[in-house]
């Protein structure tokens, strides 16, 4: 069993007083830690071993209101904004990376259609119709525990607003006819409502008008004006970085459940390794917290570079910390009965997450730091 004894309280990743969290953020992150330890951690090894979807976790998240975390309060949800969601997701990620990452794919359908769209430009009639339609989707989530899959992957730059989507939606009476190809979706086989399901070819697929999550063109506006929306994959890895560090400290102190109570903390080599991990963790937390704090529409150049740097840093340092934890703790820590080996594998996937992979982040940082918008060397 991966869970810590219930008598041991996990400190928050971001101390509420130190990071000046709002009351809502304090409550949601505390809820996530309690839920993560009680529900997610004891089951995490099972989902990993079976390569199965965490169905039971989603049922419990529905009962706890977490499926509607970003649905506005006046529409029945918990009303989390961008930063509150990110902080909460990080806490869940330290207990079960797979659940936190798939949960993000569901939550974005409400975050992007909720708090994020309030910052985008729509005429009054379009906004009123958008709010009416999203209540249909929100009702399914809150009432039935419906799970939503992501709608946009095509394997290229379209998801980030850097290129046009290849898939088309032609307006017809009562809705749209969709043609094109989409690839890969977390939650495939388990979501109740899909943008896509695995690799999918659309040929004159009718989609009714009220199924639209956003008005036409609004996703492109969001991708270009609210680019921090693509940081929502990173909280899981912030949580995994904390989990790897926590495991190493518990292991060296002889306090990790499932291992003998043997202390290994007195060796200078172990102390130096933990110090290196702590430095990486604190630097990652500071940069990431700043990036999610300043998230909003039309970010400055510096804010955009920080967002990309934060994404790259979290995704790379989560695995670097897990790697160092393995080297420091030794071979016994890699046993399947312990969580570190799973944390390591989960953390390695962060660098691959489109549309902001580690390589794409570096490419954009270098280019956008050296060129102002519209500048060329021609």
Describe the structure using short key phrases:
globular, disordered N terminus, 378 residues, 3 domains, three-stranded antiparallel β-sheet, 50% helix, Butyryl-Coa Dehydrogenase, subunit A, domain 1, single chain, mainly alpha, Butyryl-CoA Dehydrogenase, subunit A, domain 3
Q: What's the short version?
A:
By secondary structure, the chain is mostly helical. 50% of the residues lie in helices and 6% in strands. Helix 3 (82-93) packs parallel to helix 7 (234-252).
Structure description:
Helix content is 50%, strand content 6%. It is globular. The protein folds into three domains: 23-144, Acyl-CoA dehydrogenase/oxidase, N-terminal domain (Butyryl-Coa Dehydrogenase, subunit A, domain 1, Orthogonal Bundle); 158-216, no CATH class; 226-370, Butyryl-CoA Dehydrogenase, subunit A, domain 3. Residues 1-7 have low confidence and may be disordered. The longest helix is centred in the C-terminal third of the chain and has 29 residues, at 301-329. The N and C termini lie far apart (61 Å). The chain is mainly α and 378 residues long. It has a three-stranded antiparallel beta sheet, with no helix packed on it. Helix 3 (82-93) packs parallel to helix 7 (234-252), helix 4 runs antiparallel to helix 7 and helix 9 (301-329) runs antiparallel to helix 11. The protein is built from eleven helices and three strands, in the order H-H-H-H-H-E-E-E-H-H-H-H-H-H.
